[in-house]
C-alpha cells in the first residue's frame, strides 16, 4: 500500500483494518491466514461433532488406560488421569484465546456492517425526503389543474350559451 493512500478494504472498520501484505509465491494473503484459521477452530469447537469427538477421545483414553495391559498404559487411573487432565487443560487454554480472537474479528465485521447500514439508512432517508417533496410539488401542481367536474360544468355552460344563441338566431330569423 502506498504511503498516504487510503485503505479501501471494507471487511474491517476504519482504524482497525489489517494491512494486506503483498502476494508472495503462493498468492495467498499472509496477514489474514491466522485469523481465518482461528475462526475455523472457534467455529469447529462450537459444533456438536466437536463435543462428540472430544467425548469419544476421553472415553477411549480412559478405557485404554484402564483396560489395556499395564505395560501399554501411559496414564494412571490411580493418579486420576493426570495426563488427560493436562491435555484437556492445554486444549482449554488455547481454545479460550482463539474463541476471543474470532469474536473480536466478528465484532469488527459487525461494526463495518453497522456503518454500512447507517450510511444506507441515511441515503434512504434522503431519498424519502426528496420523494416526499416531489409528491408535495405534484399535489400543488394538481391542485391548480382543472378537475373533471369543473371541465364538465364549463362545457355545459358553453353548451347552454350556444343553445341560447341558436334560439336567439332562430327567433331573429323568424321575425
Automatic annotation (TrEMBL):
Domain of life: Bacteria
Pfam families hit by this protein: DUF1003
Transmembrane domains' residue ranges: 40-64, 76-101
Keywords assigned: Coiled coil, Membrane, Transmembrane, Transmembrane helix
InterPro entries linked to this entry: DUF1003
Any coiled-coil regions, as ranges: 104-131
Protein's name according to its UniProt entry: DUF1003 domain-containing protein
